[in-house]
Amino acid sequence: MDKLMVEGGHTLSGQVQINGAKNSAVALIPAAILADAPVQVDNLPLISDVGILADLLRDIGADVELDGEAITIDPRTITPTPLPNGRVKKMRASYYMMGAMLGKFKKADIGLPGGCNLGPRPIDQHIKGFEALGATVSNEQGSIFLRANELRGARIYLDVVSVGATINIMLAAARAKGRTVIENAAKEPEIIDVATILSSMGAVIKGAGTDVIRIEGQEKLTGCNHTIIPDRIEAGTYMIMAATMGKEVTIENIIPDHLESLTAKLQEMGVEVTVQDDSVVVRSNNDLKGVDIKTLVHPGFPTDLQQPVTALLAKARGTSIITDTIYNARFKHIDELRRMGADIKVEGRSAMINGGIKLEGARVKASDLRAGAALVIAGLLADGVTEVTGVHHIDRGYEAFEDKLLQLGARLWREKMTEEEQEQLKHS
Ligand SMILES: CC(=O)N[C@H]1[C@@H](OP(=O)(O)OP(=O)(O)OC[C@H]2O[C@@H](n3ccc(=O)[nH]c3=O)[C@H](O)[C@@H]2O)O[C@H](CO)[C@@H](O)[C@@H]1O
Ligand SMILES: C=C(OP(=O)(O)O)C(=O)O
């Protein structure tokens, strides 16, 4: 087990390259199951969630080759192998194995997913969608059993706007008979990425990126080549780091339109953000103003940037209120920020940040992926050294995290935790 040591107080400058989107990659890899020929996906982020999914596909018989940032998946040897435990519990997006296996084999036995613990993360809308397509669904001993004689297109109204349910239904519907209409669908850019790969395989999909998606399922789907869109959450994290400590940082290989809600908030705080074709330049200053933020479904402010931006708001003068309307309990980072001296109160689904207080390096624990990013941002800002444990969460979603930060001028390094430290962590 590793910990990250972050020495605060160093300004950041230079360029950082953004990798492919985690939340696309983890859907596109299972999508390859649906094809009847090899699928190649490029601009793959080299993160642990991708490694786990590649292994899950091998577990069910796929021939998977990883070559740098490209993955080639030959799905022709896949069989509907049950995946009750183990890897499926290590990540959230293993739930896409349900839609993909159901679509291809009309049968799937998949354990309930893991991923970031953000409070309750039900999958009732995924199940409602599978049932509408004609599957019977049962939940036994922590596994979801899906069975169908055939899948038939249906009209499905999502009670809650859900990224995972929208994609999972798209996957199953791509091989259902006839037309599926998903209403109140999620509109995140990753949904469009999934629609693009399924269309390249031969499904006919209209409306991805709006709240009504129409899918004409096909009996067979072909292989294809696909390039993953840039990771807007990774990009947003570096924009926030630059806003915290940046002299002048260029965040490259991005789609700036995907980051409009963050750009607007940073500008409101007094950060200079210059938007270019496929990059943004961020220049910070020492007189940032607190702002209020509410997380919303896309194109609103993403919940995945709520935790990182909270660390920045600790620097800004005045009071800021950040409200998470997607995950009411996504506040495990707050206690850790308090250990570093931040003045933050949580009430219901809001955190009130009394900013402008100098943070001090401390021993803190990352409880999930973006909590980890938030604590490193706080560490960049703080006096002294911050010790961040739970680094495996950060590795789920950020490729070459330390290398990219070192290149920007940050000082941080990874250390192995002693057995005693690991034992203490278990009980903390
Ligand atoms: C792998 C992946 O892409 N993860 C992202 C995905 O997670 P994930 O797909 O799990 O998130 P959803 O969009 O499904 O969740 C949004 C909200 O809907 C609720 N809900 C969801 C499904 C359901 O069946 N029932 C239900 O009540 C959730 O509890 C949550 O309050 O979108 C989240 C919201 O943008 C992001 O934070 C995650 O980074
Ligand atoms: C919550 C996240 O990931 P996951 O849904 O994979 O747990 C995230 O990326 O911030």
From TrEMBL:
The Enolpyruvate transferase domain covers which part of the protein? 6-405
A Pfam short name? EPSP_synthase
One GO term of the biological process aspect? regulation of cell shape
Q: Which GO terms describe its molecular function?
A: UDP-N-acetylglucosamine 1-carboxyvinyltransferase activity
Which residues does UDP-N-acetyl-alpha-D-glucosamine bind? R92, R121, P122, I123, D124, Q125, D304, I326
**Which keywords annotate this record?**
Cell cycle, Cell division, Cell shape, Cell wall biogenesis/degradation, Cytoplasm, Peptidoglycan synthesis, Pyruvate, Transferase
Record's catalysed reaction(s):
phosphoenolpyruvate + UDP-N-acetyl-alpha-D-glucosamine = UDP-N-acetyl-3-O-(1-carboxyvinyl)-alpha-D-glucosamine + phosphate
Which residues participate directly in catalysis?
A: C116
InterPro entries in UniProt: Enolpyruvate_Tfrase_dom, Enolpyruvate_Tfrase_sf, MurA_subfamily, RNA3'P_cycl/enolpyr_Trfase_a/b, UDP_GlcNAc_COvinyl_MurA
Pathway note: Cell wall biogenesis; peptidoglycan biosynthesis
Which GO terms of the cellular component aspect does the record hold?
A: cytoplasm
Q: Where does the source fall among the domains of life? A: Bacteria
EC number assigned by the record: 2.5.1.7
The entry's function note states: Cell wall formation. Adds enolpyruvyl to UDP-N-acetylglucosamine.
By its UniProt entry, which PANTHER family does this protein fall under? UDP-N-ACETYLGLUCOSAMINE 1-CARBOXYVINYLTRANSFERASE, UDP-N-ACETYLGLUCOSAMINE 1-CARBOXYVINYLTRANSFERASE 2
Q: Which family does it belong to?
A: Belongs to the EPSP synthase family. MurA subfamily.
Q: What is this protein called?
A: UDP-N-acetylglucosamine 1-carboxyvinyltransferase
What organism is recorded for this protein?
A: Salicibibacter kimchii
